[in-house]
Amino acid sequence: MDTDVLVVGAGPAGLVLGIDLARRGVPALVVERAEELFPGSRGKGLQPRTMEVFDDLGVLGAVRAAGGTYPVGMVWQDGRRAGEHRMFDPAEPSEDAPYNEPWMVPQWRTQEILRARLEELGGRVAFGREVVGLTQDTEGVRAEFASGGAVTARYLVAADGGRSTVRRLLGIGMTGETVDPNPTLVADVRVSGLDRENWHLFPPGRHGFLALCPLAGTEDFQLMAHFPDGTAPDLSLEGVREVVTARTHLAPEAVTELRWASDFRPRAALADRFRSGRVFLTGDAAHVHSPAGGQGLNTSVQDAYNLGWKLGAVLRDGAAADLLDSYEEERRPVAAEMLGLSTRVHRGETRRGDATRQLGLGYRQSSLTRETRTDPGPLRAGDRAPDGTVAGIRLFDAFRGPHWTLLTLGDGAPAVPDPGARIRVVRGPAPGPYAPGLYLVRPDGYLGWAGDTAAGLPAHLARFGLSGVSVSGLSGLSGLG
């Protein structure tokens, strides 16, 4: 094999997977058919759960420095400010959920940050590598490139977008619906005559809706314009100027520069399968969203985050290969739920609130989840592991890294010895939403196992290649194991 994992596509999902594999010591190669990273701002909203993922991957500081909060919407009417519009329901940060609101970063900048982190960890992106052929057997996958040559890998992950070549080569269909049959223009522009403290909204009059959102950390605005008559947008500078002039009080020369433009017809579609043999689908290759609600990029990142630790467990830790079956089991229902949410937001049937933050998503019904308590309370195995402080240790600091974490909370919780580098132990009083007991936190920050005693925990750990861990016989352990 040339590599353990071949990742096709250097969008957010592909780069996140590359990072996660690199920090686990799993040989992987990320290939991209274009000659450079995606140049547009398209997926500009990072939800709180994605910010938690980025905290774990070591890019949160750079992401926060590159972006900012969403501005208040300013509604314009006949060249005058007619009122404000809040895009998101407000939410206050808390100890268990420190990232409370979406963070705006242009997608091109997010991808630059992720690529830099991948290279820092020793990974790389090979550009100009378009996959045109694919074969697999029981040992591995062979991908052939338009430029010539091929790569063989134990597993291949398709992160090559909504028009995925890999998905087509596998013959996997997508089931969905058109959310809006009419096109939308999205472009990155430089504009004079508008402040950068507001998201400028121009309601439809004789023409369709138009919005100009200042992109945090840049001098650009993201323009979005709907074409309810079905007219195909003109993606040239003159075409964009014409649209802005027709729908706002701005003169054509106010649009001083066009940096990127594209058009799309919003649709919602879900791949019929997320896996075929040794090939997995992630991100837009597996699910295509309306941009409303900001769920597409975020769901894609979390696909990769779910798959990365499982590939690592199989390829590095000796876990059985059937662990990888849980990727589709866990992620396809979540993607379906987020597709429905995106569509409802697009149609004005629900607001951008708690559900769009993605903090409530979990895997209670997963075959990987074990809840052994008879009276578990509101926080259960399968749920996201909340932040908090235990014996002076912030839990998100303890979770950060490719390891598992075992929380032994409360005076009556059984103590455990240091099980080694792959499991970190935190002992102390139960904080916030946690009840006293034992909690095993997966590498992706979800509670995989919970119990009042350690009965059954060693057998559960063995499924992930973590056999031989003793959980009895010692007391008084505190802090990080």
UniProtKB/TrEMBL annotation:
Annotated region Disordered: where?
363-384
**DNA-binding is among the record's keywords:** no
The cofactors named for this UniProt entry are: FAD
Key words of the record: FAD, Flavoprotein
Q: Does the keyword Flavoprotein apply?
A: yes
Entry superkingdom = Bacteria
Name listed for the protein in its UniProt record: FAD-dependent oxidoreductase
Q: Which Pfam families match?
A: FAD_binding_3, Rng_hyd_C
- FAD-binding domain span: 2-339
NCBIfam families the UniProt entry points to: PRK06184.1
